[in-house]
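2.7 Reproducibility. Because tokenized structures are sensitive to small changes in the input, we list the exact sequence used for DUF3515 domain-containing protein, including any N-terminal residues retained from the expression construct. No trimming or masking was applied before prediction.
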Amino acid sequence: MNAGAVARRVLVAAAFLVLVGGCSAETGPVEVDAPQPATEDQDACRALVDALPDSVADEPKRAVTPESDWAAAWGDPAIVLTCGVPEPEGFKRTSSCITVNGVDWFIPEGQLESSEAVDLTMTTVHREQYVEVLLPAEHLPPATTLADLSSAVSSSIEATGECV
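Resulting structure tokens (single pass, no recycling of outputs):
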């Protein structure tokens, strides 16, 4: 066997090991900083987390740490949902929002207007409880994520209005 053939075999073997190693690496729990919802919000937030899908944007559900009845995560980098967050900063009744399957979502203008792909903070509005989704830029655009989550939100969190 000539030196070129040996070098190709070594490269193929190395590439195979990298691929196998990458596929077998376990992804640990996602660290979340979920707030403690107000007592009157806890049942709705727990119902939401229980109703969430096993995958979002084709990403599998992951464990969160510390364990929480108010948070969930999918994929790597993680898409993270938390329930019982405060009203989003910068949101006003006249703010623009995106409606997906009957659920209104607020994304801060600065994130939408960025010329580069940026992580998005998407928060439900016009609902009894606020639900925040942190979407890493690697998972853009947000349409699939919002579509995958909106059914669980609409079945668990009462609407109080709609986008104007």
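The helical segments are 3-24, 39-51, 109-112, 143-156.
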